[in-house]
Design brief:
By secondary structure, the protein is an alpha/beta fold. The protein is built from ten helices and twelve strands. The chain is globular.
Amino acid sequence: MTQTPASTAQTARQCAVTGAGLGLRRGLMDELEAARPSQVSFMETAPENWIGVGGASGRRFRRFTERWPFVCHGLSLSLGGPAPLDMKLLADIRGFLREHRIRRYSEHLSYCSDEAHLYDLMPLPFTEEAARHVAARIRDVQDFLGQRIAVENVSAYLAPGREMDETDFIRLVLEEADCDLLLDVNNVYVNSVNFRFDADEYLEKLPAQRIAWCHIAGHFNEADDLIVDTHGADVIAPVWRLLEKAYSLFGALPTLLERDFNFPPLPRLLDEVERIREMQGKHPVPDAA
């Protein structure tokens, strides 16, 4: 397949969302439909959760995509995996993105399958060979979808075959694939504890012009030196501080709050969305964001 043309920072961001977002989960739909909160500028969903869903559920989902701008965050494409890309899934994703006028599509910089799905996001070895492998697959995905995608830095609990720093690996992938980065601030914090590195220095090494939007979430402290990324708790102070650091470096990037379970009352969840908005208001918006 032909590599997508190189793009400027403006091209990378011109179709992006703005402001503060919230991940759409079925457990939140009743309250969100009733409240229609103004704090939420955009939403995000996994296409795998809604592809092929029809009837009343499909119509209900359509009401959300007609009310809010949406981005998508894939779960099962297995960009770094050894098995061929799932072209049937890719075709379904392409149709879904077009049907619902999704602004941007992202996936995880990891793998989750070989001969079968592993139902977990497995870490890639930080090697030049792995970077070029996953970058080639990202180029194929972008060609098939007809658009740039973003890849997310993932949380991890082991580092197989590491030959370079995570930031060097990410930069190589982004450059080779000519794709964008979905910066998960919570994952940076989680990995900084699990692998004992400086989270601020990590952010400073990222290519600002390729960051399309951010994620922020809560996690679970398994031990003093082990954090598990769960999306099932409130965002903690060190992660808010790291988001502030990201805004100071990159500007007020679009930022989405992820919450997958243990949902608090909606007003409390919206307080976190509002906090994102307040933090964004202290920083300039990146060019063409």
